[in-house]
Amino acid sequence: MPATSRRGNRGPAAAAGNRRAILDAARRLFTERGYRVPLSTIAREAGVGQGVLYRHFPTRLDLAFAVFEENFAELEAIAADPGEGAFGRLWSRLLEMTIAESAFVEMVVDARRALPDRGDDRRLLALVEATLPRARAAGLVDPALTADDVLLAQRMVYGVVVTETDPVRVRQAVEGALALLKERALVPAVR
Predict the structure, then answer these.
(1) Which residue ranges does the Swiss-Prot or TrEMBL entry mark as DNA-binding (predicted)?
(2) 37 inside domain
(3) Which of 23, 60, 101, 103 could pair covalently with 35 via S-S, beta carbons 3.0-4.6 A apart?
């Protein structure tokens, strides 16, 4: 009988590596295939069993929150800048995340529905509310622009991203939609 090259079960010693592998696989697959990618596919891509995935992340939302916590941390770091340009950088990065990782938006929407007390939509709103007044005061955006307007525009961009059937044209479609909205002064025209 031939010898197998299978490694022995490392048990708890493998937990940190397994968690990292799951997070990396989930981020990659959420980006490539969307938020609803089967969890079994994520486990397989990470090289772990589904039981291991569920031990670390009991629900899809638990996994998504862990994956996208890095996104929130990045947005929070941008918003923490006391300068007047923080809003423009926050808006630009939020748009980029919406285009590149539409699963991030899907997760926030799903959380809003499933876990209204979780507050991730309020977390995003708070970041916009923290930066927008400085941009208004500096004359960088329309003085009538509200944080709710900004998040509505971001959701509209998300709609363009998920309904564009040609992945090559997504950025062009988003730019066209933003140009139309800017023309009507409905989105942040950051100067």
Answers:
(1) 38-57
(2) yes
(3) 103
Q: How far is residue 85's CA from residue 100's CA, in Å, rounded to a whole number?
A: 23
Count CB atoms within 10 A of the CB of residue 35: 24
Structural domain total, the chain: 2
Rounded (5°) CA angle 163-35-101: 65
Residues 82-116: tens digit of each pLDDT: 988 999 999 999 998 888 877 777 776 776 677 66
Q: Return all residues near 84 (Cβ < 8 A) that are at least 6 apart.
A: 134, 135, 137, 138, 140
- CA 111-112-117 angle, to 5 degrees, is 90
Q: According to the model, what pLDDT value does residue 6 have?
A: 45
Are residues 141 and 94 located together in one domain of the fold? yes
The string of pLDDT tens digits covering residues 109-135 is: 776 677 666 655 688 899 999 999 999
